[in-house]
Amino acid sequence: MDHSIAITEQDIWLALERVKDPEIPVLSLVDMAMISKVELTNEKCVIHFTPTFVGCPALDMMKRDIKTEVELLGIATEVVLDMNNTWSSDKMSTEAKTKLEKFGIAPPVTIDDSELTQEALDRVRCPHCHSTDTTLRSAFGSTLCRAIRFCFACKQGFEQFKPI
Questions:
Q1: Fewest CB within a 10 Å sphere: which of 52, 59, 62, 108?
Q2: Are 105 and 92 in contact (CB under 8 A)?
């Protein structure tokens, strides 16, 4: 690898912004808060990656995409699964949740432990018409992290990213 040009941690983070979630292509792994740490030395870069679910079928694909994108900068890269950190939908930025809603998936509701009630979990806004007159149709959506809901206002079904 050519190290004649100094690669910065900011360069690494910008490269990681280009690695998209394979199930939600409008969000990067950075948007999803799945990159927990970047370690950069003169010899290599180590990316610590915290998956949303340990059993996620896209883990190998995401690890490969991280490695490929960062190595385009000209530095050897290792991707390490970070099992010391637990991913939570609360780690997603407000911007990521807005992108998710514009994509047509209701973002996860943010609930602190003192508000953890069924009513709070059901306070889901339709990404199509923004009504909160919605109901859960199935706790199981197209992926482990999504549920299927129905909006009574616009009569549309939609997916919701589950609060995890």
A1: 59
A2: no
Which residue ranges make up each domain of the chain?
9-81, 93-161
pLDDT at 116: 64
User: pTM of the predicted model, to two decimals?
Assistant: 0.84
CATH superfamily of 9-81: Fe-S cluster assembly (FSCA) (3.30.300.130)
User: Which value, in Å, is the radius of gyration of the alpha carbons in the chain?
Assistant: 18
For the stretch 124-160, pLDDT in tens is: 999 999 999 999 999 888 888 899 999 999 999 999 9
Q: Is the pLDDT of residue 3 over 50?
A: no
Contacts 24+ apart (CB under 8 A), 38-41: 38/9, 38/12, 38/13, 40/7, 40/8, 40/9, 40/12, 40/75
pLDDT digits (tens, 9 = 90+) for 12-32: 999 999 999 998 999 999 999
Q: What are the start-end ranges of the E strands in 4-81? A: 20-21, 24-28, 35-40, 44-49, 76-81
Backbone phi and psi for residue 140, each to the nearest 5 degrees, phi listed first: -120, 115
